[in-house]
């Protein structure tokens, strides 16, 4: 999987380089510590590391924290996913994100509830721009 991601990122169109280089740093969507212990890794962090290395953008994986252990989004009906992640995240140090341009990365975009909630929290903490980049979109 990581080899495939490396290949995809290395072969992104050249015109994406200036766009990606416009961000101050990358923040992966965090897992709650209990989920991280169960899984052993956070796929969004792995994805973020690949982009950070290829494009020379700093990765900040401790800035955004998941403070609530939520039900996995895939197990919930679309109508309750937004409520499931509401206020499940916090910014550890607001001064790190104030006036910054942030690229938020995650593995899969289904309804957008998780990435939208993370962006909302980052913007509330003072981020100037928060854009999302995902590996895949569920169909």
Brief synopsis:
With 139 residues, the protein is an alpha/beta fold.
The percent range for helix content is: 25-40%
Mean pLDDT: 88
Strand content: 15-25%
Structural class: alpha/beta
Q: Assign the CATH class.
A: Alpha Beta
Number of domains: 1
Number of helices: 6
CATH fold descriptor: Rossmann fold
Query: Would you report the number of β strands?
Result: 5
**Rg value:** 15 Å
What best-fitting shape do the alpha-carbon axes yield?
Answer: globular
**Strand order across the largest sheet:** 1-4-5
Largest sheet report: 3 strands, parallel
Description:
With 139 residues, the chain is of the alpha/beta class. The protein has one domain (2-137): Rossmann fold, CATH 3.40.50. 39% of the residues lie in helices and 20% in strands. It has six helices and five strands; from the N terminus they run ααβααβαββαβ. The strands form two sheets. It has a three-stranded parallel β-sheet with strand order 1-4-5, sandwiched between helices. Strand 4, helix 6 (113-124) and strand 5 form a beta-alpha-beta unit. The radius of gyration is 15 Å and the shape is globular. The two termini are 20 Å apart.
Task: Please name the defining characteristics of this protein.
139 residues, alpha/beta, Rossmann fold, three-stranded parallel sheet, two-stranded antiparallel ribbon, 6 helices, 5 strands
């Amino acid at each position: 999987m990581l080899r495939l991601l490396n290949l995809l990122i290395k072969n992104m169109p050249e015109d994406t380089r200036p766009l990606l280089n416009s961000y101050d740093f990358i923040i992966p969507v965090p897992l709650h510590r209990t989920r991280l212990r169960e899984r052993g890794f956070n796929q969004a962090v792995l994805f973020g590391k690949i982009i950070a290395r290829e494009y020379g953008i700093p990765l900040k994986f401790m800035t955004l924290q998941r403070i609530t252990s939520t039900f996995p989004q895939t197990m919930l009906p679309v109508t309750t996913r937004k409520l499931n992640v509401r206020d499940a995240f916090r910014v550890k140090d607001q001064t790190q994100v104030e006036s910054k341009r942030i690229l938020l990365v995650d593995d899969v975009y289904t309804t957008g509830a998780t990435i939208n909630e993370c962006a909302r929290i980052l913007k509330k903490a003072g981020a100037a721009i928060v854009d999302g980049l995902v590996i895949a979109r569920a169909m």
